[in-house]
Design goal:
It comes from Pheucticus melanocephalus (Black-headed grosbeak). The protein has strands spanning about 5-10, 15-20, 30-35, 40-45, 50-55, 65, 75-80, 90-95, 100-105. The protein is an all-beta fold and about 110 residues long. The protein has one domain. The chain has a four-stranded antiparallel beta sheet, with no helix packed on it. It has a three-stranded antiparallel beta sheet with strand order 7-8-9, with no helix packed on it. A two-stranded antiparallel ribbon has the order 1-2. A hairpin with an 8-residue loop joins strand 7 and strand 8. The protein is globular, with a radius of gyration of 14 Å.
């Protein structure tokens, strides 16, 4: 609810990493690992900002932030085929109006 993200290992109650205030205090409403690249995850905050984290590039801050200005995004999920090395990775965004928007991610965050 405060924008903090914690990375846990299944065998420990304590996080391996913790990022406080990563969304400047905005609640995170969706978070998902990339299906095609294990070190990348995406977070959506309550202000319709999408944060891209690539832990191999930078483990302190997101590597990119995209604001969805048209209308509020209420949730997101990722699509892709992890068994294929084509690097196609998409973000499916559900908007408040009920519209669905699909955007493809740059290859540098999608390739295995």
């Amino acid at each position: 609810s405060d924008g903090s993200i914690r990375l846990h290992q299944m065998t420990s109650e304590y996080p391996l990493m913790q990022w406080n205030g990563s969304t400047k205090g905005q609640p995170i409403i969706a978070l998902q690992w990339a299906l095609t690249r294990p070190a990348v995850f995406f977070a959506l905050d309550a202000s319709s900002n999408i944060y891209i984290w690539d832990l191999l590039e930078n483990d302190l801050l997101p590597v990119a932030k995209q604001t969805m200005p048209s209308e509020r995004v209420v949730t997101m999920t990722l699509l892709g085929e992890p068994e294929k090395a084509n690097g196609l990775l998409g973000i499916v965004l559900a908007k408040e109006s009920g519209q669905i928007d699909i955007q493809y991610v740059k290859k540098k965050w999608a390739l295995p």
